[in-house]
Amino acid sequence: MDINGKVAIVTGAGSGIGRATALRLAKEGASIVVVDIDADAGHPTAHQIDATGGNAAFCRADVTQEKDVRGMIEFAERTYGGLDIVHNNAGIITGAPRWPDTEPAAWMRVLDVNLRGVILGTQLAIQSMTRRGVGGVIVNTASLAGIGYGFPPDPVYAASKGGVVLFTTSLAPLKDEAGIRVNCVCPGVVDTSMLRGAREAQSGEQAEATRTRLTGITVLQPEEIADVVVEFIRDDSLAGRAMLVPNGRPRELLRVPAARPLGL
User: What average pLDDT is seen over the chain?
Assistant: First the structure.
């Protein structure tokens, strides 16, 4: 897909990977609907795009709320005439205290934002793109934690991201059925406010363990993940794929086993 002239929604665009992706897509010529639950974070992203000659508008939304997600898609259609690209990027971690001491409401919120929010955003985006009839591209943010690496400090986060990967790979047939390609990016450790917040919330043995895990790791920059999102959008051959972006090693597509019928 040629990004120039297209309309894109980016969730969690107030910081980190979302902001980097919104800026990059705007630079490539797309009109951007900047979505974040935090208006104080989202507005600056839209203003930065406008200040550099791009085209952006902010829309506040909680990706776990159907009304909000429908609203952001309707906002894109009303403001820019349609929807071509969605980056379902909004995500959170469980935070302290670590599971299994975490209150159930806290880890349930992680599942709601990271997995249910992606499923909802994808479903409603597909409906919008199907109505328009010109296809589209959806890129979901997953994680290396969700494809076998695991993440002992936050197993619920890992579970939510694993769900995103399997959800995404299950949607490969949409390419042929509706001209809609759904893929996901699986980063390692990225320099974002979420990472910094997680480290600040730790103390004692937890903080020391985190420092040990990060020693010698080349932390990824959000712009590197935005590059992968752009690659997925441009490459019309990619559908139902997951791109692994490890720290300090070349990125690669997750190997997908040959499809076997499940008797359905």
Answer: 91
